[in-house]
């Protein structure tokens, strides 16, 4: 059996057996393929792209309607053709997700914890702040107290200012004291109690099970990958990787098991992405259209993904640069 046939079997199996949400998959396509090319695309293009993953016309229309209702997308109609674009309010969230998926590096930990005391907030504001802090990786370790080991202080400061809560919460910096021989074990139990360590491990391992064989097949240089397959692989890869990363608090490696699978998952994602992005773009650009015509050139941020992308196809390179 050829490499292309084997890969198609895997793609078909994932599409058939894994639970795919139309709204989530459309968000993936917007973040991965549309964001840095103007942020808008025709409904007809979306319908054609989503058909590759088992979604019919009606399912796509229902999904984009939900995304518009929740202010992720907005729509424009020119003649009888509808176009959808990323809203101004959701753009920052797409860009944050972009950083997490393609550009995040394992950061060094200064061995200090950031603690947020929320006892001065009313119930509604407390729930709002808790949700936003969880996005930054914080967990509720006690009543009115959230914690994270070495957060991005600039992001935290910006969040508190944006929510107008800078004068309503107290931020502490704390250090773990190794008073007893079993202190490390105690910290490990605390982490598992308050952060989804075991659930994340299972999700990373499932991700590796799905995509590792594709990675091995792609290393075989004796056969060209079909552009439509490349687009399917790239979209499914980022779709599943994104869903894990957005739940991963990115805890320092020192606090995680030595065989933490996130490292292998990132390496695999980078290798597959760099292998398929070019033919995937070729297919995407052959289908996707905006109100002005073909998709515009990709921005410089796109080319910085996973440490830098390099196009080898002269025609595609000319179309994108």
List the helices and strands and how they pair.
Elements: H1 3-17, H2 22-34, E1 40-42, H3 43-51, H4 57-69, E2 73-78, E3 81-86, H5 88-103, E4 112-117, H6 123-135, E5 139-142, E6 145-148, H7 153-162, E7 170-175, H8 183-194, H9 197-218, H10 227-245, H11 262-287, E8 289-290, E9 293-294, H12 300-303, H13 314-320
Antiparallel strand pairs: 1-3, 2-3, 4-6, 4-7, 5-6, 8-9
Protein name: Phenylacetic acid degradation operon negative regulatory protein PaaX
Domain Transcriptional repressor PaaX-like central Cas2-like: 107-178
InterPro entries: PaaX-like_central, PaaX-like_N, PaaX_C, PaaX_trns_reg, WH-like_DNA-bd_sf
Task: Summarize the structure in words.
The chain is an alpha+beta fold. The protein has a domain at 111-174: Alpha-Beta Plaits (2-Layer Sandwich), CATH 3.30.70. The protein is built from 13 helices and 9 strands. It has helices at residues 3-17, 22-34, 43-51, 57-69, 88-103, 123-135, 153-162, 183-194, 197-218, 227-245, 262-287, 300-303, 314-320, and strands at residues 40-42, 73-78, 81-86, 112-117, 139-142, 145-148, 170-175, 289-290, 293-294. The strands form 3 sheets. A 4-stranded antiparallel beta sheet has the order 5-6-4-7, covered by helices on one side. A 3-stranded antiparallel beta sheet has the order 1-3-2. The protein has a two-stranded antiparallel sheet with strand order 8-9. A hairpin with a 2-residue loop joins strand 2 (73-78) and strand 3 (81-86). It is globular. 29% of the residues are buried. The model has no long low-confidence stretch (mean pLDDT 90).
């Amino acid at each position: 059996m050829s490499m292309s046939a084997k890969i198609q079997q895997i793609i078909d199996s994932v599409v058939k057996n894994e639970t795919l949400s139309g709204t989530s998959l459309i968000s993936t396509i917007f973040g991965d393929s549309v964001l840095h090319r103007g942020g808008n695309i025709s409904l007809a293009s979306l319908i054609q792209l989503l058909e590759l993953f088992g979604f019919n016309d009606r399912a796509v229309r229902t999904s984009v309607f939900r995304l518009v209702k929740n202010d992720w997308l907005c729509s424009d109609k020119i003649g009888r053709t509808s176009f959808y674009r990323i809203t101004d309010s959701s753009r920052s969230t797409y860009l944050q997700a972009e950083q997490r998926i393609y550009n995040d590096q394992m950061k060094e930990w200064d061995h200090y914890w950031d603690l947020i005391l929320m006892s001065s907030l009313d119930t509604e504001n407390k729930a709002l702040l808790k949700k936003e802090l969880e996005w930054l990786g914080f967990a509720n370790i006690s009543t009115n107290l959230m914690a994270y080991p070495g957060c991005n202080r600039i992001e935290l400061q910006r969040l508190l200012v944006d929510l107008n809560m800078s004068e309503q919460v107290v931020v502490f910096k704390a250090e773990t004291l190794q008073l007893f021989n079993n202190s490390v074990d105690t910290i490990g139990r605390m982490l598992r109690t308050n952060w989804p360590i075991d659930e994340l491990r299972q999700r990373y391992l499932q991700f590796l099970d799905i995509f590792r064989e594709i990675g091995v097949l792609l290393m075989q240089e004796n056969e060209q990958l079909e552009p439509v397959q490349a687009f399917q692989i790239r979209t499914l890869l980022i779709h599943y990787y994104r869903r894990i990363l957005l739940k991963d608090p990115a805890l320092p490696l020192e606090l995680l098991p030595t065989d933490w699978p996130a490292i292998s998952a990132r390496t695999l994602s980078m290798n597959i992405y760099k292998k398929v992005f070019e033919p995937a773009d070729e297919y995407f650009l052959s289908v996707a259209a905006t109100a002005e015509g073909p998709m515009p050139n990709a921005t410089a941020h796109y080319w910085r993904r996973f440490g830098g992308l390099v196009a080898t196809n002269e025609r595609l390179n000319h179309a994108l640069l």
